[in-house]
Amino acid sequence: MASSARVLVAGDTNVGMKRTHNEDAFEVIDEEKLYLVADGMGGHASGEVASKMAIDTLREFFKATSADPEATWPYKMDKSRGYEENRLITGIKLANLRIHENAQRDPKLRGMGTTVVSILVIDEGVLIAHVGDSRVYRIRDGKMEQLTDDHSLLNDYIKMKRLTEEEIANFPHKNVIVRALGMKETVKVDTRLDHPQPGDLYVLCSDGLCGPVTDEEIHELSSSTNDLKQGVARLIDRANQNGGPDNVTVVMAKWIGKG
Fold it and tell me: pLDDT tens across 185-203, in order?
């Protein structure tokens, strides 16, 4: 059963300035208070297939388990985690398996994959789960914090050794991600529980936003209006003004409070 917490949400996606088709996808599942962004990859539009498959699988799994909480799950529950965390991880693992199996069966889809970043509003707070380099930011009391850790080659290098700002800016493999749905038969899903305060704003995005748009710009534009649709539009517009090298997708969720 969905949390009684009140949340306002808006989202949109845009092909950008350089791509011919959009391989991103997003979903606002209000009845479950589940919000998703996926950034597909692979040739011949197969990234589009992967991101849609991820979104569809999560929607279907949440609908099935909501209608029948006793439904058999495709994976065992991890007893060290709560029910809703297990539910979100299982949905993402199921999406991973479906994408991987479809890629193995169809030569045209070989190598397809997708990132996924999600927030699920539960009674305890905001549960975040992700695979890949799509991000969640939280803006609170005039400060913005990234709540996800990029599963990218660049981030691995940054963690292993201190790169200078110039080396980071000129890193040749910025788009290489080290973890995605569909890469392997199984996937590790990162999760964290955030304890929101009234007025907190969560920004989910593909790297089509956080690549060309700086964190400072994301913070400023997200905070510049109380209208979430307008905020989403401003972020997408800025990504396109800054070259729009990739598809860009943004979902904003504002925590109002309990009850």
Answer: 999 999 999 999 999 999 9
CB-count burial class (<10 Å; 0-12, 13-18, 19+) for 80: exposed
SS3 84: helix
Angle subtended at Cα 239 by Cα 237 and Cα 240, rounded to the nearest 5 degrees: 65
DSSP annotation of 4: S
213 neighbors 242 (Cβ within 8 angstroms): yes
DSSP state of 133: S
| C-alpha atoms less than 13 angstroms from C-alpha of 65 in its C-beta half-sphere | 19
Q: Which helix (H) or strand (E) holds 251?
A: strand 248-257
Q: Give the integer Cα–Cα distance in Å for 173 and 92.
A: 26
Residues 6+ apart with CB under 8 A from 259: 4, 5, 6
pLDDT digits (tens, 9 = 90+) for 201-249: 999 999 999 989 999 999 999 999 999 999 999 999 999 999 999 999 9
Question: How many Cβ atoms from other residues are within 10 Å of residue 241's Cβ?
Answer: 11
Give the integer Cα–Cα distance in Å for 68 and 237: 42
Q: Characterise 162 by phi-psi region: left (phi > 0), alpha (psi -120 to 50), beta (else).
A: beta
Flag whether pLDDT at 77 surpasses 70. Answer: yes
Q: Rounded CA gap, 166 and 227, in Å? A: 36
**Closest-CA residue to 182 (of 251, 246, 145, 132):** 132
**pLDDT for the residue 25:** 98
Q: Is the pTM of this model over 0.85?
A: yes
